[in-house]
Amino acid sequence: MHPYRSHSCGELRPSHAGEQVRLSGWIHRKRDHGQLLFVDLRDTFGITQCVIDVSSPLFPMLEETRVESVITVTGPVVQRTPETVNAAVPTGEVEVQIQELTVQSRAEVLPLQVNSDEDAGEETRLRYRYLDLRREKMQAKIRLRGAVINSIRRRMVEQGFQEFQTPILTASSPEGARDYLVPSRLHPGKFYALPQAPQMFKQLLMMAGFDRYFQIAPCFRDEDSRADRSPGEFYQLDLEMSFVTQDDVFAALEPVLGGVFEEFAEGRQVTAAPFPRIPFREAMLKYGSDKPDLRNPIEIVDVTESFRGSGFGIFAKAVEGGSVVRAIPAPGAGERPRSFFDKLNDWARSEGAAGLGYIIFAPDGTAKGPIAKNLDAERTAQIKEAAGLRDGDAVFFSCDKAGAAAKLAGQVRNRLGDELDILEKDAFRFCWIVDYPMFELDEDSGKIEFSHNPFSMPQGGMEALDGKDPLGVLAYQYDIVCNGVELSSGAIRNHLPEIMYKAFAIAGYNQEQVDAEFAGMISALKFGAPPHGGSAPGIDRIVMLLADEPNIREVVAFPMNQRAEDLMMQAPAAVSERQLAELHIKLDLPPE
C-alpha cells in the first residue's frame, strides 16, 4: 500500500465497504463522544469521517492532536447505519475505523478558523493566507479561477490563436500608470520596468508575421488599490490579430467571453452574441458612464432646454453659463417617504455635489418638491415625457458642466438601482463601448492629450487628423463591459508611421521624442506592418464576476492588501547595504 494514501478523502463509497484503505489529510473537526472519537479528515477532494474506540492504544495520540494537524490513517471502510448517514457529503454513507495512525505534522493553535466561514479580518487572513486558502469557500474560488483560465486557453487555441510569452523586464513607458522599476546591476544608473501590459510586444509579434497571438499575461502597475483592481500585479487575456477590422476582433472575443460565462454561469443568464454596441457619447448621456451596468433599466436623459429661462433660477442661471441638466428617472420612488429623498440628497453632498434636486410625481398626478414649485406645468410635463415617467415615479437632476453632470448622474443611476432594487437578477449583461474620442482636453493645462490608447488608429486616418478639430476625431477604440465592470480596453492599432507621428504631434510630441520614447515601435512600423488590433480582458475581474465577489482579493491566491503590502511574505522590505552597493544605489528617504 502507498505510504500516504490508497484513496482520496472524497472517494470512498458503500462499494468500498470491507476494504482496507489509507487516507492522509488535515484534521478538519474532532468530536469526542466519550467512548468514541470521530475525526473528519480533509484533503482537497473532500472529507471522510474516521473513528477510533477509546480502547485503542492510538486513542490518546489522536485525542491530543490539534485540528489542522496532518495525519495518515489506515483501517477498514465500514458502512454507516441509516440513522448516522450524513447526506451533506458524498462520503457520508461510510466511515473508516482507525487501526493505524501516523501524525505527519502537528499544528499549533490557529490564528483563524479553517473549518468555518467566520471572518477573521482581512489583515489576519492575508498574513496567514495559506490557512485562509484551506477554507472550503476559498478553495472553490481559486479552483474556479484555474478552471476559467483553462477554458479561456482552450477556446483561444480552438480559434487558431497561438500562445507566446513576452518579456517581464522591459523599458519604462512614458504613457499610462506608474511603472515598477528594476535597477540594473550591469548598467549602473539604468532601470528596467515591469510591463504595465504586453502592448508593444504583442504589436511587434504582428509585425513579425504571427497572425493570432494570446497569452495569460501578468501586468504590473504601481496604482492605488480599489475593490476591482489589485495593487501591483494582475492578469489579463492578452490577444492580438492581424488583417482585422473592429468587427473581426469582436467576433473572435465574444464566443470566448460569452462561452466562459455560460460555462460557469450556474443558471445565470448571459447576453447572447453579438453584444450590444454603444457609442461612447451615447453611453455618457444615457448611463453617465462608459462602463454601464445594463442590468439597471434606468436611462438618463438631457432636459437642459426645459430649464433654460425657467423659474428655477439656480438651474436656469447655470444653463446660461454653459451647464447642462441631466434627468435620472426613479421608477416607483414617488411613493417613497421624504426620508428617502433626504438620504439621497445627503449622499450626493458626501460625494462632493451641491445637492440633488428632484421632482415627485404623486399617484394623483400632481408634481411635488422644491423644483416643481418653481417650474411651470408645461416644463414639468416636458420633463415627465422626456424621462418616460408615470404617476408614482420621481426624477432626480444633475446640473453642471457636461463631464461633471454625467459623472454625478451616473452615480445617482447606480445608487437608485440599488436603493430601488430594480437590477435584473442572476444575469451577466455585456456591451461594447465604441467610438471613443482620440483626444481630450486637459482642463488644468489646456493641452490636448490622448484620451485612451495612443497607438489606436483614428477613424478616417490621416485625413481626419489633418482636416478635423482634434477633439472631434474618433478612434477605433473599444471597451467591453459586464455588469458595470470594465473587463477590457482594446483598439485597432495605428500601423502607419506617418499617422503615428501626426497623432503624437497633436498630443505635443515632436518626431525626435517619438523616435526616442517609442523606438522599437516606430522602427518596426517602417518595415511593413499589417493592419492589426486586439484587446485584453482582465482575468481577475472575470473570475470576480463569476464568483459573485465584490472584492478582487477574494479571487487571487496571494493578493496584497490595500497598501500594496504582502503581509505574509513581508514585502516590500528593506534590503542590505551590500545589495544596494551592487546596484550603485543610495537611499534618500523622507523623514519619518
Q: Provide the helix percentage.
A: 25-40%
What characterizes the major β-sheet? 8 strands, mixed
> What's the gyration radius in Å?
30 Å
Strand residues, percent: 15-25%
How far apart are the first and last residues' alpha carbons, in Å? Answer: 61 Å
Describe this structure in words.
The chain is an alpha+beta fold and about 600 residues long. It has 19 helices and 25 strands. It has an eight-stranded mixed β-sheet, with helices on both faces. A hairpin with a 5-residue loop joins strand 16 (about 355-360) and strand 17. It starts with 19 loop residues before the first strand and ends in a 10-residue tail after the last helix.
Short overview:
This protein has 19 helices and 25 strands. With 592 residues, it is an alpha+beta fold. A hairpin with a 5-residue loop joins strand 16 (357-361) and strand 17 (367-368).
